[in-house]
């Protein structure tokens, strides 16, 4: 391609020379052809230079991009290597020379990067592991991977630690390298050993308890515990001596691999056991020929020494603080078991004695049992008669109390006032005013009672229609609370309104509902103790919520759930902290002239006694006039519930 223009010019010149041999050509033609060919040659050269420059630029860009990718890959590799959570080493498989490591690897061994670059894998191992290295490398080459658990490694300062190696073979074509993950498992293995020992200790303590529960005798438990202690603490011998009140010297209860002479010497050392209150380790003298140390473990219960466990080692032995505590626990647990066996034996003997005494008592008390049966029958008859008399007296007292308190008091005020005016002859204006006030109060009370009776008659006859308007429960209750505030202050009671702000407006007769909540609050004031709390809360309920309480609602209004439809209702609860209402009387309190309980149990302050039995009947009539219903739930205190429809039904329901 580079010589194509030049070859074209040479070919043209040769062609012209060949033509001139046969036909003479003018000089200008030869010159023109030469100039044209030279121009073509220059164009080809310029195009070639431009193309060559374009190719060079493209190659430079590709080389730059490849260099950037190579640098990025190198950084990524370095980041992965240094950011790994374990020590990483890379070495040549054939020579075991270290090629690369991360920061954790250098910190683990304490060498610098330059120092590690001149080392081989063997330099990082404890000399005892050099032979195992060959096996490890052989498995790595053969399987492509190898794991080495519990290998002893050596740091720069000469200290050794236990490690774990996971290696993978990487084939780079011209050489093979190994990628190794190395972890220090010294703490892990130490923790595992400690956990194993703690589990073994717990197993010994558990076996002591379960063996007794499984019915094994005490001697078997003692021998098994001594044998397990020897296995756990690597003792070569052991004994158990107990103090008994029947003998002056301690009794040998269990022995393992101890000579009779040593058993006798150990028993004699317990003749003065005052110093044996804690676990102690002492060297053995001539009596313990062939033994290195003796461990004494006191067996005690409730600070009382019952015996001693001896563990014997052939070489001097030391214990950790945790092992000493464990031995103390074993001694106390063994003492508790011995004490429990003693108490159980004593209890068994006393139970047998008690059983014999009981049999004698049964024989002598047969006649007394017959008399006792007759006495119980007579007492039951007397109790039933007494309860019937109490019930009749209560009914009589309730009736007389209602009549005398609710009707006799206003009439007495009127009659006394009139008699006073007749006797005094209006001599004192002040007395006349006071008497007239008494007459007025009594007359007003009688008028109110009559008005309530008339109201009930109209409600039963449904002669009055509802004058409905938009009502919000909180606004309605706040107006009533202002009217009743003197009563709350007089009795030190508190009214709490809960969850009322989010309730919607509803259509209702404001006058009726004011009377409803007035009666419920007045009822709560009467039946709550002084200083008590009255709570009013409300919520919107669906048809499903009402049907979930069908058992309760049906008791008070059997037809309500049938005609409630799918409307939403506003449920209001007025809860007091009074003495409550018995279940058998809850339905009757909404009837006319019905009252529950003793007069003296329900009031304090100046408003003593009960009402005339009209208030809750009026509440029921007015609520049902709105298409709702009212009921009561009572345990400690009473909760009066009423539901009012948020959507009015077309047909007015039956009131009673």
TrEMBL record:
Source taxon at top rank: Bacteria
Histidine kinase domain: residues covered: 402-648
Membrane-spanning segments: 31-48
Reactions that this protein is recorded to catalyse: ATP + protein L-histidine = ADP + protein N-phospho-L-histidine
The keyword Nucleotide-binding is assigned to this record: yes
Annotated ranges, domain PAS: 73-144
Gene3D superfamilies: 1.10.287.130, 3.30.450.40, Histidine kinase-like ATPase, C-terminal domain, PAS domain
InterPro entries associated with the record: GAF, GAF-like_dom_sf, HATPase_C_sf, HATPase_dom, His_kinase_dom, HisK_dim/P_dom, HisK_dim/P_sf, PAS
GO-annotated cellular components: plasma membrane
Any GO molecular function: phosphorelay sensor kinase activity
This enzyme's EC code(s): 2.7.13.3
Keyword Mitochondrion appears in the UniProt entry: no
Alphabetical UniProt keywords: ATP-binding, Kinase, Membrane, Nucleotide-binding, Phosphoprotein, Transferase, Transmembrane, Transmembrane helix
Protein name, as recorded: histidine kinase
Organism: Geomonas paludis
């Amino acid at each position: 391609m580079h010589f194509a223009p030049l070859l074209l010019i040479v070919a043209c010149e040769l062609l012209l020379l060949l033509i001139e041999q046969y036909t003479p050509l003018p000089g200008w033609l030869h010159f023109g052809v030469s100039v044209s060919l030279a121009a073509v040659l220059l164009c080809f050269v310029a195009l070639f230079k431009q193309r060559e420059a374009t190719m060079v630029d493209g190659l430079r860009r590709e080389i730059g991009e490849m260099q950037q990718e190579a640098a990025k890959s190198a950084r990524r590799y370095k980041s992965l290597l240094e950011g790994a959570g374990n020590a990483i080493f890379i070495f040549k498989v054939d020579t075991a020379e270290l090629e690369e490591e991360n920061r954790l690897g250098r910190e683990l061994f304490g060498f610098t990067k330059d120092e590690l670059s001149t080392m081989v894998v063997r330099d990082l191992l404890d000399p005892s592991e050099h032979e195992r290295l060959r096996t490890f490398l052989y498995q790595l080459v053969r399987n492509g991977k190898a794991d080495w658990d519990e290998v002893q490694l050596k740091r720069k300062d000469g200290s050794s630690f236990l490690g774990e190696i996971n290696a993978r073979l990487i084939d780079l074509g011209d050489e093979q390298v190994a990628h190794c993950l190395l972890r220090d498992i010294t703490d892990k293995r130490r923790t595992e050993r400690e956990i194993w020992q703690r589990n073994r200790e717990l197993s010994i303590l558990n076996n002591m308890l379960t063996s007794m529960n499984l019915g094994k005798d005490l001697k078997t438990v003692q021998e098994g515990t001594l044998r397990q202690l020897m296995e756990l603490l690597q003792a070569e011998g052991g004994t158990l001596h107990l103090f008994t009140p029947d003998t002056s010297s301690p009794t040998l209860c269990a022995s393992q691999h101890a000579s009779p002479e040593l058993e006798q010497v150990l028993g004699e050392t317990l003749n003065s056991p005052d110093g044996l209150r804690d676990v102690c380790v002492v060297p053995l003298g001539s009596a313990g020929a062939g033994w290195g140390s003796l461990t004494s473990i006191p067996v005690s219960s409730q600070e009382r020494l019952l015996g001693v466990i001896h563990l014997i080692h052939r070489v001097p032995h030391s214990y950790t603080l945790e092992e000493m505590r464990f031995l103390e626990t074993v001694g106390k647990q063994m003492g508790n078991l011995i004490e429990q066996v003693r108490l159980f034996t004593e209890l068994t003997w006393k139970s047998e004695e008690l059983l014999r005494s009981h049999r004698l008592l049964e024989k002598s008390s047969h006649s007394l049992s017959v008399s006792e049966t007759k006495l119980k029958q007579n007492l039951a008859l007397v109790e039933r008669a007494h309860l019937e008399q109490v019930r009749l007296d209560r009914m009589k007292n309730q009736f007389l109390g209602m009549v005398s308190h609710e009707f006799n008091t206003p009439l007495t005020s009127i009659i006394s006032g009139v008699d006073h005016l007749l006797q005094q002859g209006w001599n004192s204006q002040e007395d006349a005013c006071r008497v007239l006030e008494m007459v007025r109060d009594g007359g007003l009370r009688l008028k109110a009672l009559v008005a309530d009776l008339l109201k009930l008659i109209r409600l039963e006859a449904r002669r009055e229609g509802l004058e409905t308007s938009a009502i919000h429960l909180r606004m309605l209750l706040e107006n009533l609370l202002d009217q009743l505030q003197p009563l709350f202050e007089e009795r030190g009671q508190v009214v709490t309104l809960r969850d009322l702000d989010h309730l919607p407006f509803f259509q209702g007769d404001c006058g009726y509902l004011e009377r409803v909540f007035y009666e419920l609050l007045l009822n709560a004031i009467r039946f709550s103790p002084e200083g008590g709390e009255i709570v009013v809360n409300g919520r919107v309920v669906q048809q499903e919520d009402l049907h979930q309480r069908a058992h309760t609602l049906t008791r008070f209004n059997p037809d309500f759930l049938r005609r409630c439809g799918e409307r939403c209702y506003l449920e209001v609860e007025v809860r007091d902290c009074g003495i409550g209402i018995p279940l058998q009387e809850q339905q009757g309190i909404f009837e006319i002239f019905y009252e529950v309980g003793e007069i003296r149990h329900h009031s304090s302050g100046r408003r003593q006694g009960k009402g005339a039995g009209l208030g809750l009947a009026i509440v029921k009539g007015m609520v049902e006039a709105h298409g709702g219903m009212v009921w009561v739930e009572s345990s400690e205190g009473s909760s009066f519930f009423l539901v009012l429809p948020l959507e009015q039904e077309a047909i007015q329901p039956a009131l009673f």
